[in-house]
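About this split. The held-out portion is used to measure sequence recovery: a designer receives only the structure tokens and must propose an amino acid at every position. Recovery is the fraction of positions where the proposal matches the reference. Here is one held-out target exactly as it appears in the evaluation file.
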């Protein structure tokens, strides 16, 4: 028999390896040879023959075809089977021992160097040195931040397609920047999982990049800073903003740092306030990436400005003798905005805030202030002002002159002229500027143009037409009267025209003794007491009296005051003129003393009395 071209001897043991047949050689005979497999170890089921018999020509060969079921072979251990081949032609036999070893092994992957490494991605590479037996069914990569990652460690796994190509790869993303990863290729067959050894994959940091643009809206104490995040980097920045100072090369260690709350790529701006006026600042954009400050490659600088506030003085209005309305206009509030506005004025030509009058308010536009207690007929100089950053700024100087309008007063004709009284009349047509503070009448019997040095009647407060009833005048006397006013700020009184008038002659009347005290009995037993009152008008007066009569009362012994028209009993007697007159009074009380006076009354209401006379009701004549 032959195995792989080698002649076998009886009892040989052969290892089949990859062979699937044994050759029978009819070497020594020219006759044909019939054969069959008469016996073999039946318990070894891992080997099976496709042909168990055949005929071989003289000096020819034939083949015994067999199959090996590797699944029934013991793993890693030689399996033996005894095979007996019998020849029916010569009744010979040939026994050999067949040895088969199961071909089972894990695949052999190899991890190749990682390529295309950047901050958060890379390309993992591997190759299969031996596909294993049976061939692998899965391959790929495992990776971690610790060495020798395996599938059992629940590490990240990437599966690759199984193909005839021994080389395989996988692109991976979402890696952490600036981090070392460990990668192993792996392959799996039914025999197990094999790894290709660690390859190191150190990721990079992709730096955040920024640029800064020219500042805008530069003002006295504020500015708008502008920057752009060109690339947020890997890992992305956690903070961005601006840092600035008054020197060069600002950093976040400077106290002047402003943080922006936005993220990502693109433009960002921030307003910076509370800057110093007229000061140069240097600015850089910055970002904090992975705990480290990253700055814009360039820096910019700007200088804050000081825009002067502008104020204009408008001509005053509503000018009086003692007051005026001052007016101003804020043209530009300035930057920084002014802190105070108002007016300053004096009697010279250059007013300053040493004599200032602030006005509440802010912003631009009109503002006003009414001032008082000015001197009349006086020129003042006024200027509007603002105080900006501690410095006063003035508008133009506007002069104005307070006015003087004299009080206009007239004296009207005297009325209600009596012997000893009269009514003075006047009118103030205009109170003047300033208004008069005192007015009234002056009169005299000596001076034809009386002044406040003569008799004076004083009034205060506002007046238009006004009158005063003056008593205590002398009868049959010519008086001169005129209205007057005293105006604030003018020591000289202002007078109306003179009104002369003569006083009259007072009427005279006599009280005569009462007579005819009489009792009259009534039916019910009561009685009434009567008396006749007697008087005599000796002079009707000038102007003449218009009323006459009597006033009486029970005599008051304790105070002994005479009866009056205003308080006691009045008995009017019609008809007027001179001569005697009488009237009967009634309802007098029994056993009383009475006091009576005759009276006359003028048209103006003046009362003139006769002397007091008494009578009693102690003794009376019965009727």
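Reference sequence for scoring:
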């Amino acid at each position: 028999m032959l195995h792989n071209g080698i002649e076998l001897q009886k009892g040989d043991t052969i290892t089949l390896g990859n062979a699937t047949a044994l050759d029978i050689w009819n070497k020594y005979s020219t006759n044909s040879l019939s054969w069959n497999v008469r016996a073999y170890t039946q318990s070894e089921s891992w080997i099976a023959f496709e042909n168990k018999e055949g005929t071989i020509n003289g000096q020819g060969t034939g083949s015994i075809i067999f199959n090996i079921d590797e699944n029934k072979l013991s793993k890693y251990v030689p399996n033996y089977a005894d095979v007996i081949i019998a020849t029916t032609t010569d009744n010979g036999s040939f026994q050999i021992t067949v040895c088969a070893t199961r071909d089972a092994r894990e695949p052999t992957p190899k991890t190749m160097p990682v390529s295309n490494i950047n901050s958060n991605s890379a390309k993992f590479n591997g190759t299969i040195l031996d596909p294993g037996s049976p061939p692998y069914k899965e391959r790929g990569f495992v990776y971690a931040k610790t060495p020798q990652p395996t599938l059992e460690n629940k590490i990240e796994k990437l599966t690759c397609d199984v193909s005839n190509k021994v080389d395989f790869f996988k692109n991976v993303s979402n890696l952490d920047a600036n981090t070392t990863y460990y990668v192993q290729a792996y392959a799996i067959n039914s025999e197990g999982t094999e790894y290709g050894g660690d390859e190191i994959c150190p990721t990079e940091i992709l730096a955040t990049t920024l640029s800064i643009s020219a500042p805008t809206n530069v003002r006295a104490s504020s500015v708008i800073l502008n920057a752009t995040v060109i690339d947020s980097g890997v890992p992305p920045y956690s903070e961005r903003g601006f840092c600035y100072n008054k020197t060069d090369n600002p950093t976040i260690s400077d106290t002047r740092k402003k943080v922006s709350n936005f993220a990502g790529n693109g433009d960002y701006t921030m307003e910076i306030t509370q800057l110093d006026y007229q000061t140069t600042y240097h600015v850089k954009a910055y970002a904090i990436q992975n705990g480290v400050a990253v700055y814009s490659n360039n820096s910019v600088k700007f200088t804050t400005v000081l825009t002067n506030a502008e104020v204009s003085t408008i001509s005053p209005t509503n000018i009086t003798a003692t007051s005026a309305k001052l007016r101003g206009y804020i043209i530009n509030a300035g930057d920084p905005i002014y802190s105070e506005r108002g007016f300053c004025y004096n009697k010279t030509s250059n007013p300053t805030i040493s004599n200032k009058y602030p006005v509440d308010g802010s912003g631009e536009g009109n503002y006003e202030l009414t001032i008082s207690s000015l001197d009349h007929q006086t020129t003042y100089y006024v200027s509007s002002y603002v105080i900006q950053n501690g410095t006063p700024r003035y508008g133009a100087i506007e002069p104005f002159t307070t006015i003087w309008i004299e009080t206009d007063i007239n004296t009207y004709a005297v009325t209600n002229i009596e012997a000893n009284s009269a009514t003075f009349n006047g009118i103030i047509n205009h109170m003047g500027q300033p208004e008069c503070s005192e007015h009234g009448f002056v009169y005299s019997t000596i001076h034809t143009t009386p002044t406040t040095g003569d008799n004076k009647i004083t009034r205060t407060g506002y007046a238009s037409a006004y009158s005063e009833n003056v008593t205590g005048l002398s009868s049959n006397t010519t008086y001169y009267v005129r209205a007057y006013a005293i105006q604030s700020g003018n020591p000289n009184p202002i007078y109306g025209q003179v009104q002369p008038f003569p006083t009259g002659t007072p009427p005279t009347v006599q009280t005569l003794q009462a007579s005819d005290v009489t009792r009259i009995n009534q039916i019910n037993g009561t009685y009434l007491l009567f008396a006749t009152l007697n008087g005599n008008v000796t002079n009707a007066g000038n102007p003449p009296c218009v009323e006459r009569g009597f006033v009486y009362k029970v005599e008051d012994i304790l105070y002994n005051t005479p009866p009056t028209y205003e308080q006691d009993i009045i008995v009017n007697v019609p008809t007027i003129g001179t001569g005697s007159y009488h009237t009967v009074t009634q309802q007098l009380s029994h056993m009383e003393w009475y006091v009576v006076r005759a009276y006359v009354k003028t048209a103006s209401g003046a009362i003139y009395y006769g002397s007091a006379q008494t009578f009693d009701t102690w003794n009376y004549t019965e009727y």
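Annotator remark: The chain has no helices and 50 strands.
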